[in-house]
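I'll show an entry:

:::
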Amino acid sequence: MKTLSFFIGLILLGTPFTSFAQSPTDDFEFSAFIISTSVTGSNVGATQQPGEPTTVERPGFPRSPLGGRSVWWRWTAPESRLYTIKTGDRSGTEPSSTFDTQLGVYTGTELGNLAEVASNEDHLDFQNGLSSVTINAVQGETYHILVDGFNGETGTIVLYITETRFTLSVIVNPPGAGTVLMSPPFEVDGYVAGTTVVLQALANTGEQFFGWTGDLNTRSNIIFVVMNSNMTVRANFTADSQFIWQNTNGQVSGWSMLGTNFLRPLKFALLPPAWRLSAVSDLDGNGSGDFIFRHRDGRIAAWLMDGDIRTNNFLIGTITNGYRLVGAGNFDDGTQPDLLFQRTNGELSVWFMNDLFSTNSTSVGQVHPDWRAVTVADLNNDGRADILFQHRDGRVAVWLMYGTQRSSAVLIGTPVARLAAVRDLNHDGHPDLIFRRFGNTSAWLMNETTRQSTILVRRGLPASGSWRLVGVRD
């Protein structure tokens, strides 16, 4: 009589449900079949049966114990495909369960031989303790669905079973430079898993299409995107970066790049060899990286750039001999990048910049002279400049900074190449490390201070003996 009394409780409580046959039951053996894409019910008065599963997955935590207020449905897959089963509507436009749910999906014939297909508590897409799983269902297979309440919570259950959909974000870079045709047309709720979306990039008059970056990287203007995950692609009608080089004869040149793809060579100017291009940074905030030089006599000067055009040049100041200009980054709360120097004894100093001139300076620490400060970048994406080092033995490390204070030091790894620059090459929001060795340019694709993979950017050019990679600019 356990099942009967539970149904009576549902009716007396006035719990909404699509149909009586689709309401959940407290008894696994008599669980109701789901015949629609959403059903409602309640776990008020429900209990846990002997032999039921005892835990579910919780992202980022150990498995979570079930709350002991479980109810059951069963569902047979009409097709072999990905399905999403969830206890709420992520968009907030449809009803959701009223309590902190726990969800499990299983195959098997009885409680003693159930095999977990997927389970969840506190799905990351929901802010209110709802649950969601995606399963690769097999046509004709029957799946048993358990819904419980965290720590014994009870209430109204709204359960959805839908074909899994994935979103496609298409970005035009720069905005207004072109259009992207989509077939099938854009779906606000995403495309059904496995759908192939054809994208065609069309440049406006006077513009040129360079290629796609993001989750797909290609120069072809037509691409085929298979929707098996959420995807973001960028249609680029401009190069997205320039690798800036200086030759030993003073020549400043560059590579126009799209992600890790070389587009064309650049040539800027031939300087007297006494001027060393030391850093590339946007000093005036116009979106173009400016060139910062150090003369042998200690003078620090800059070229202000607008795209590839030099608009102004000026003297910033003079540094004492024995100091080397490392790079530029924000070491205070100002709006302009500050300049970092390293002395031959390993001491590190910062010039604070205001209106393109140095206002004051401070020491930010000291390392053993065998550690060479290579460049400055916000490696952990906290909005503050960090300092990258390389030891004589090849080790690469970073000081994670909080303004002028070191918050921690992290050893990243030991490459066989020389660290040269930092840039987010694959547009994942994490700066990557760029290396040079024997004329080859390679990169470590990073997730903050952790290397994810290694790629070859370009082989053999320019010649390693005469060209030095200074930095990467927008």
The longest strand covers residues 261-270.
